[in-house]
Specification:
about 350 residues; six-stranded mixed sheet; five-stranded mixed sheet; about 10% helix
Length: about 350
């Protein structure tokens, strides 16, 4: 083995931190593959006068077939099984199953997650204010888990004290309120571990009568500590690093777009969303349909969420990303591909 080969092997045997990834040129423009507990890096060389462009901010390769699809997740809403109670109230029934599953957070990079229904984030639960919600939770994982819903509900439906052991189950039932953008997550101690491992999802309660028609997209800002040093190495919106760089989200010029944005990132105090070439109406928690901020950056602590509404007046590719540059260069970056609306 040559000295160069020996040095390369020693480098792979060392844990790869996010600082080392950035020093190597960031994940954008870097190939990722698992190498034991490390990440093997492959980046193009650049002369001192040469700089990468935003087109280079992309992971090499693609996730395995059949893996979680962030593009499909954007518009997947679970309205449950609908029926009527004797009172006439709408009843919506759901099932959430906790299970341990390895997920792919970048091409070739796998993470031992705890999931709801086998995916991270869990399914987006959607209903209307005043509906009766019945969620049967089954724990098929190896650790106690629960489901804590944000919103208004009785104490015994809160998920903070009703820990469900492995092979156990619990049924949560309450009236959905208030209207707005909520979330759900495991509340078992240590909470940061249960959340960071992937037990979270979006919970949308529509106002009676709904919202104005729009192209609606769900975005969960999350991150992953792949070497378990309490520091994230991978950042994303909807789990897979740089997915929307490689597969831009198509929008129509003049079309109202509504983003349901939630921050669940662990180990970092704040996360953010910045939109290029446009401003958005920023409805905090989505509970108020009238008052909003007019801005292009939304900054959220963990558990905070907002509804963003915007319309593009120009066509072309427009970036959206975290306005913490480090997060953007480690995976939390995407593109809206705005096109002319088809003629009717």
């Amino acid at each position: 083995m040559s000295a160069n080969d020996s040095g390369a092997r020693r480098a792979l045997e060392q844990p790869i931190t996010r600082r080392k990834l950035l020093a190597a040129g960031a994940i954008g423009g870097v190939g990722l593959a698992t190498g034991g507990s490390a990440l093997a890096l492959q980046t193009r060389s650049a002369s001192p006068a040469e700089h990468a462009t935003h087109h280079d901010m992309m992971a090499v390769g693609d996730i395995r077939p059949g893996a979680f699809d962030p593009t499909a997740y954007l518009t997947q809403f679970d309205y449950g099984k609908e029926s009527r109670l004797p009172s006439g109230q709408v009843l919506r029934e759901y099932e959430l199953v906790a299970e341990d599953r390895e997920i792919e957070v970048a091409p070739g990079v796998f993470y031992p997650a705890w999931t709801y229904n086998g995916q991270v984030p869990g399914p987006t639960i959607r209903c209307t204010e005043g509906d009766r919600i019945r969620v049967r939770f089954v724990n098929r994982g190896r650790h106690p888990h629960s489901v804590h819903f944000h919103g208004i509900h009785p104490a015994n439906m809160d998920g903070a004290f009703e820990m469900v052991p492995p092979d156990g189950s619990y049924t949560y039932e309450f009236d959905a309120e208030p209207a707005g953008l909520q979330l759900y997550h495991c509340h078992t101690v240590p909470i940061k571990r249960h959340i960071h491992k992937g037990l979270y999802g979006v919970f949308i309660i529509d106002p009676p009568g709904g919202r104005p028609p729009a192209r609606e997209l769900v975005m969960m800002m999350n991150a992953f500590d792949t070497n378990f040093d309490n520091e994230n190495e991978i950042y994303a919106v909807n789990t897979v690093a740089f997915h929307y760089q490689k597969y831009p989200i198509q929008l129509r010029k003049g079309e109202l777009t509504r983003v349901y944005l939630v921050n669940i990132t662990e180990f970092d105090l704040l996360n953010s969303f910045h939109l290029h070439g446009n401003f958005f109406r920023f409805y905090r928690t989505g509970t108020d349909l009238e008052r909003f901020e007019w801005t292009d950056v939304a900054t959220l602590a963990q558990g905070e969420r907002c509804v963003l509404e915007f319309t593009y007046k120009h066509t072309g590719p427009f970036m959206f990303h975290a306005h913490q540059s480090e997060f953007a260069e480690l995976g939390w970056s995407g593109i809206f591909d705005v096109r002319e609306a088809p003629h009717v």
